[in-house]
Amino acid sequence: MAAEGESIFHDQSDFEYDYETLRTAGVIIGVILFVSGILIALSKKLTCSKSSSNSNTAGTQIPKTDVPPPTV
Question: Within 10 Å of residue 15's Cβ, how many Cβ atoms?
């Protein structure tokens, strides 16, 4: 039975990772995710500031409500 198990997985024993390619792909994916996260954060910040400046010029402000502090 052990001989059958070895023959099934014999092809994978010679497998080796190409660490240079894995490292390069990981860095590229990390940079893409980081830049897209920054762009999403900045786009939300810019659209919020534009909408709030338009509402201030119109003279309509949403009144702030007082929220009581949480009790522990």
Answer: 6
